[in-house]
Amino acid sequence: MVRYIANKFFYMLVSLFILISATFFLMKAIPGDPFTSEKKVPDQIRERLYEQYGFDKPVYQQYLKYLGDVVQGDFGISMKKINREVSDIITGSFAPSLKLGLVAIVVAVIIGVSFGVLAALYHRRLLDNITMVLAVLGIAVPSFVIATLLQYVFASKLHWLPTMGFKGPLYYFLPVAALSAQPIAFIARLTRSSMLEVLHADYIKTAKAKGLNWIAILFRHVIRNGIMPVVTYLGPMTANIVTGSVVIEQIFGIGGIGKQFVDAISGRDYPVIMGITIFYGVLLMIARFITDIAYVFVDPRIKLSKGKEG
Amino acid sequence: MDSNQVQVMNSPVDLKPEDFKKIGADEKQAEVIQRESISALRDAWQRLCANKLAMTALWVLGFIVVASILGPFISEWVHGYDYYSNDLLATNESPSATHWFGTDDLGRDMFVRTWMGARISLFVGLVAACIDLIIGVIYGGTMGFFGGRIDEIMNKFSEILYSIPYLLVTILLLVVLEPSLGTIILALTITGWINMSWIVRGEIMQLKNREFVLASRSMGAGSGRLLFRHLLPNAVGPIIVTVTLSVPNAIFAEAFLSFLGLGVQAPVASLGSMINDALTGWLYYPWRMLFPATVISLTMLAFNIFGDGLRDALDPKLKK
Amino acid sequence: MEPILQVKDLHVSFQVKGGEVKAVRGMNFEVGKGETVAIVGESGSGKSVTAQTIMRLIPSPPSIIRQGEILFQGQDMLKKTNKEMEAVRGKDIGMIFQDPMTSLNPTIKVGKQITEVLIKHQKMTAAQAKREGIEMLKLVGIKNAEARFNQYPHEFSGGMRQRVMIAIALACRPSLLIADEPTTALDVTIQAQIMDVMKEMQQRLGTSIILITHDLGVVAGMCDRVIVMYAGEVVETGTKWEIFKNPQHPYTKGLLRSMPRLDQKKGEPLIPIIGTPPDLIKPPIGCPFAARCEHAMKICEQIDPSATVFSDSHSARCWDLHPMAREGGQPS
Questions:
Q1: Nearest C-alpha of chain B: how many angstroms from C217?
Q2: What is the ipTM for the molecules in this complex?
């Protein structure tokens, strides 16, 4: 058990290290430097800038310094926004993204699981068919298409909800719906197929032979085991929602971290790109790590089998 | 028990002695084979054909492919517009007899651009899926076939690579390499093959220990023969399904990159970059969004449904 | 002997694509108090369906109980509502299944899976149930029961899991235990242990047992009476001795000849029964075994034979046992 966790943790650190190093060296590989593309800069100022950004030192020293800074949460200074630390930009814009993301995750799990459970219980009936059609649509139709469609119908035409911005509870509906559509579809499908498997399992017959009533069987035996695979999806879902929010924030004009990312990329603001990339990387890897750990607690079978080999 | 004690219940009919004439076991009837045997692939194909939804998806895909090839020419022949021609006097026009899908902010014909965009999106998706397939089969085949230490090291490597969120890697690469069709496909495939390699590895490992492979090995078949004659052909089902389902993923990823300005660059446009261009003011010019969004959604939907149908057809056990 | 279970003219079908599979076609039998009755037959003969119908555990649809009565302690189980059945299952009738590896919920501790049934039927508190549960584990021969109580099923071997299943099935001291191929999935050495546990529990609690099996060795070791099923019908029934020493139906004889025996002469081959059972979507109008029977006569394919009775306990359904078959049928 401890070894399993340590093993996963080690993997996480290795991956993070690779991501950080890759970020650094890729940025170094860009021909020229960020200042050559600017207007003609006097040599003196250029030297000062070089010194400030540490470009005058050998690459390996820059690399070690960068590693050290990143560990301390220091991603350097933005090149476009004068005197703004990258870490400030991240913390300053994280709140709306976090709220949006968390709400989307909670909504996705609750709605996805409910639909999956219901579809399995009404297997091959109308509710099941409708759910599965919606799930295929949800998986296949890109989130930005869903977002614009929702915006068009509910904001532009019906005027029920605000089109843009992020100023109150009402502003959550459309972006959350767009963000969670695909995870809902995935979770519903996952839950349904695993519920169907559980419903036909021998131990459900045992439970019936014990004389337990249907409700007790459903909650104590079926649902608990049926939603187990959903736990494995939590990591990928976080990744899905984080990347999705980059686009969704743009469509709904929400000033979150995703928007900063897009701005930084279009402005080639390398320290910000690097900073947000690493930040996202850390976030997603932690999410995956937590998923791995959570699964051990949900499924007692893992403890022994994986603990032994790992 | 002697037969004197035997009691017989009343028979419902009168019995005649000839009824008791011996005929013996009807061996022919007992051993009769119930059904004509069909090869696995033909069986799968028949199941696929019976799946109306999957066949509809296949037709939709066929239509989109044909339209993306012929569409741009049609407008050129009928109206004389080509991909680049713009008419600044006719910007943001709604669909009409001359511009079937309307025009964009530079007065370019949306019908031509939508199908060209579809052509590019499909190209990116198909090529990326093929490269994933090639790398994935080689890498996964090696892992599965040799197993042991080689497998362990290669698997660890792919696991670490996989645990780095792939869109971030893709974004970084494109920031550095400057987006073009080639670099986009490169960036998409740099981690895209991992999933395929795992599928292939799992299949090969499972097949490797099956009797027919052991039999072939015991008769002296070489590694190459084993891999290409016995292992890969039997793993072909899951591989096809994975390819089919990875095409829409690549199409989506390219569209996503367009939102970051890292998709194919103007004046060339994919469906994703057209949607991104349409975002500003699309509530006033909805057709600029509608057509590319519909085509990309239909494409992804059709690939997904067809992929699901393929999986059901190839592995009926899985069908729920 | 006073019967606690009487099954009368039971017909059960399954709705499938090509029609209706008539899985059980007129079952009649009784189980006495404290008695062990074996139902034997090959796969698809309807023995499991019969067992699950008694518990009303077969899913409906696709199954349909066409007609018949199942009288358990004088009450017709087929007339009970679902709610009433819940009160019977686990309390008055316990059941164990073929595959112990999949019959226990993998995510719930073994102890809780036993106490669940006690809390439901005996209205025990959690603490009482735990004491009783540990007691049951000890009774079925699980050592270190207190510690085992808090373990998960995957920490138990197959044989141990089947003991747990027996503990669950007998926790409420039911008067009838239905064991559906309880040893089929186990190693031979473990099989014997499980049969011993069942026998011992039966002596202690006075439970009647219906043992579904296709293993005649198990039958010999454990049962009082045997019911031989073929294609959804009872073809022969009798005490263990009557069936083993004096089988009357060709199918029963075939079963016995296909079973290895200790007293078998060296080199004497086992004789398989050739062919496969009939398609029960369209069951034959005559004797269902006729197509595989070496003694088959013209009449066998036309009329299903009725029972020929040899003793209070022994009867078989075969035209060859009819007096006319002896008299004139076979001059050659």
A1: 24
A2: 0.84
